[in-house]
Amino acid sequence: MDERNRISLTKALESIKGLFQNTDGLRFSVHVNEVGQLLLSPVVSVPLYEAWLYKNPPTLAKVGRGLAEAAKEELEDLGSFDKYADDEIE
Hints:
The protein has helices spanning 10-19, 48-54, 57-71; strands at residues 27-32, 38-43. The chain has 90 residues and is of the alpha+beta class. The chain has 2 domains: 1-45, no CATH class; 46-76, no CATH class. Strands 1-2 form a two-stranded antiparallel ribbon.
């Protein structure tokens, strides 16, 4: 620890960046056990309005397939969706 009670995590962060492809928005949850040891768990936040997707595995799988198809440019033009622009969203 330095004089301001800070701990450098530079080496730990380098290891984490090697484990995960995308560390944008990375945060840590801090757990302290009964003997005072700290455990830092890397976490990312998901906006509440998007959390439903991660709780719905079949839909998440469909989104994943769609993204994979788009990456391979396996796209199908469905035309304009302008006629739905004024529809009520439930």
